[in-house]
Design brief:
This protein has 13 helices and 15 strands. The protein is an alpha/beta fold. The chain starts with 16 loop residues before the first helix and ends with a helix.
Length: 443
């Protein structure tokens, strides 16, 4: 197999005829509840390119939702996972263990914030990791309440639907939801009524007041927060917010859980986004970027908290599958070797410079934000802060039609988010931004 050329190429309409044929088969066979951002059917992907069945090559600003940070066919991931596949596909770690699982847990202990004794448990999906973090925090504290935040996203299983803020499409019609979940404000700087400079202090005070008065801090097992909120709109909580919540948790024996499923593993230019304000989470959940595209997730944290769940209380048939563990070791090796934190910071520099120019020119760009290769623009109606989901959808569509894959997000559906693979070439990155500028000129 030859290397995938790192060049955009549009040879048909997007989606092209072969993709449309496959889409018709898909519609007949696949449940309607499973959506797709852009129904072009993939044949190959790697670096910053996705190739489709019609021979088009799209510039990838999505990474399969922040997963393929090392690329979708990274050499070390393919090599290690292939070797593992040939040796054995599965034994179940709960039946007969294997070294790869242990090695991933050792890497997690080394790479996550804090130099305390740490342990990990491995699972398959992000939602599963979050569920297990709740189980562990409840077992450790012998308390039940869980505090989450406005605009938070934690998954689609029953417990994580309850933890997730947004109704459509994640929750609507799928209740009843798990009890003992409480939601408090987050410091969303751009939309904070008294301005971003007050958001950190005011939002943390409000959140702490609500926890103290409405729930009782002594009843709270865990607070769970994304250090940069993902699906909710790439919201970086205003400075001071995370440290205040972490300190409150510490003072009250509450387990502080950082959900770094989207923000972790070099995505924001640091191994974990918590590091930005020196936060040391008690527990940290990871998934997405961890294994170069294979399904793997983890809960990592203070050894005494992780050990609170009784033997047999955690696990699952496939959790920490050996092929996924081999892939994770390949992905981590790639992140270190290529210094992908530095690459993410460079992506931020290029993107923010160019997006600031777009913001100068178009007053529908309300905010440009994010860190590393987790960058977004929030779109509003001219001269207001009213969300503009229509123009957001139109921009995404215009980008797709010329071969630039972008994603949207946000509670109001008005955020364009950019999550390129960290290994994307700078020429492709700039070409993608050229296409985005042209899309703005067109709407
Ligand atoms: C994607 C995501 C999840 C859920 O992960 P799945 O693998 O889709 O279950 C949880 N938390 C955050 C912050 C995420 O971005």
């Amino acid at each position: 197999m030859t290397a995938l050329p790192q060049e955009r190429r549009v040879v048909t309409a997007i989606p092209g005829p072969k993709s449309q044929e496959l889409q018709a088969r898909r519609t007949a066979a696949v449940a309607a509840g499973v959506g797709s951002v852009l129904p072009v059917f993939t044949t190959r992907a790697g670096g910053g390119i996705i190739e489709d069945v019609d021979g088009n090559r799209l510039i990838d600003f999505g990474s399969g939702i922040a997963v393929t940070s090392v690329g979708a066919s990274a050499e070390a991931v393919v090599r290690r996972a292939s070797a593992q596949l040939a040796d054995f596909t599965h034994s179940c770690f709960m039946v007969t263990p294997y070294e790869g699982y242990v090695e991933v847990c050792e890497q997690l202990a080394e790479l996550t914030p804090g130099d305390h004794a740490k342990k990990s448990a491995l699972f398959n999906s992000g939602a599963e990791a979050v569920e297990n973090a709740v189980k562990i925090a409840r077992a450790y504290t012998k308390r039940q309440a869980v505090v989450v935040f406005d605009h938070g996203y934690h998954g689609r299983t029953n417990l994580t639907m309850a933890l997730t803020a947004k109704n459509m499409p994640y929750k609507n019609g799928f209740g009843p939801f798990a009890p003992e979940i409480y939601r408090v404000p987050v410091a969303y700087g751009y939309r904070w009524p008294s301005g971003p400079e007050n958001a950190g202090a005011e939002a943390s005070a409000q959140a702490i007041d609500m926890i103290s008065k409405q729930i009782g801090a002594e009843n709270v097992a865990a607070v769970i927060i994304e250090p940069v909120l993902g699906e909710g709109g790439f919201i970086e909580p205003a400075k001071g917010f995370l440290p205040a919540i972490a300190q409150f948790a510490k003072d009250n024996g509450i387990v502080f859980v950082a959900d770094e499923i989207q923000s972790g593993f070099c995505r924001t230019g640091q191994w974990f986004a918590s590091e930005d304000e020196g936060i040391v989470p008690d527990l940290i959940t990871t998934a997405k970027g961890i294994a170069g595209g294979l399904p793997l997730s983890a809960v990592t944290g203070r050894a005494e908290i992780m050990d609170a769940a009784h033997a047999g209380g955690l696990g699952g048939t496939y959790g920490g599958n050996p092929v996924a563990c081999a892939a994770a070791l390949g992905a981590i090796e790639t992140m270190k070797e290529l210094d992908l934190n530095a690459r993410a910071k460079r992506i931020e520099e290029v993107m923010k410079t160019r997006l600031a120019a777009v913001q100068e020119k178009y007053d529908i760009v309300g905010d440009v934000r994010g860190r590393g290769a987790m960058i977004a623009i929030e779109l509003v109606k001219s001269g207001t802060k009213d969300p503009n989901p229509e123009v957001t959808a139109a921009l995404a569509k215009a980008c797709h039609s010329v071969g630039l894959l972008v994603l949207t997000c946000g509670t109001y559906g008005n955020v364009l988010r950019f999550l390129p693979p960290l290994v994307i070439g700078e020429d492709l990155l700039n070409e993608g931004l050229d296409l985005l500028e042209q899309a703005f000129a067109g709407v």
